[in-house]
Amino acid sequence: MTRLLTVFGATGLQGGALIDYVLKHPKLSGIYRLRGVTRDVSKEAAVALKKRGVETVRADMDDKASINDAVAGSYAIFAMTNYWEKASADVEIAQGKTITDAAVAVGATLLIWSSLPHVTRMSGGKITSMKHFDSKADVETYIRGLPIKSAFYMPAAYMQNTKTFFKPQLSENGILEFAQPWDLDSRLPMIDIADTGKFLAPILLDPEKYDGKSFPAATAFYTSKEIVDVWTKITGKKVEFVQTSAEMTNAALPPEMVEGLKGLINDCAYYGPTGVKDLEWVLAQMDDVPTSWEDFVKANGPWFEDS
Asked: CA–CA separation, 24 vs 8, rounded Å?
């Protein structure tokens, strides 16, 4: 008899990628049947999931009753929240705790939480502006104190973000500039978020083995030079890294958060001092090779058509 895996954010990047992976995986698809949780079961992406055999249910992250209904009967739950929906750490923490409490109440065996490092603690209190990291880490701490098997998925910087707010811009001198606040030789961990299922497969196949484990999720750590060199190589257009101030880097983020991002990369190496070693351990657990930055660039063109 198959076990029920309930996936929050089913029509989003992380949840949608996990569902797609499980459906296509010869072993996982025989172990798990899928339930996708979304706010609107009538939207196109949710209807498409239903056509693929995924049960779709509606839930409001601020409504405990709907969350309880959404996880009823689950063996495993993949849970995530969206800080940016309300830009409130308190709201995100409350939502994460609501899902966790519901998972425990229904007797679920496994809870996989989409987490991130606690930057304030990791930096010794020097960086306090990365609230969307800290709030997820606070939920992780809460989960670790409850009677449920758990594992923690910690995705790196999305490669997909280089198509939007990390996208190089054409300068006045005609050069495409990858303008960021961190240093040229600082290393940024990157993930093709479509690989979410590749990272979570070991946990779903052996919850006991990975109980309590954190899974930093990245293909590799890349310097800014490596990032721009790949763009130049694949597109044939010169891309250069330019270090800028927090005020000049990204209009989509407030300066204090950009400054926090700079410290996270330069001083904390994103995952902290053991991040490289921890990522090596994660990659060794996986059967599938994650997408490299070069392969992502090749597969996700065209780039810089307006440049």
From this structure: 19
What token pair was written down for 60? Answer: 């409001």
- At 67-87, the pLDDT tens digits run 999 999 999 999 999 999 999
- Confidence tier at 254 by pLDDT (50, 70, 90): confident
Q: Which amino acid appears at position 176 of this protein? A: L
The rounded distance, in Å, linking the Cα atoms of 290 and 2 is 27
User: Cα separation of 185 and 266, whole Å?
Assistant: 9
Burial of 172 (0-12, 13-18, 19+ CB in 10 A): exposed
> Which among 287, 115, 109 has a CA at the least distance from the CA of 201?
287
| Residue 301 pLDDT greater than 80, yes or no | yes
pLDDT of res. 253: 74
- The secondary structure of 146-208 as a DSSP string is SSSEEEEEEE-EEGGGGGTTT--EE-TTS-EEEEESS-TT-EEEEE-GGGHHHHHHHHHH-TT
Q: Return the closest-CA partner of residue 11 out of 21, 19, 3.
A: 19
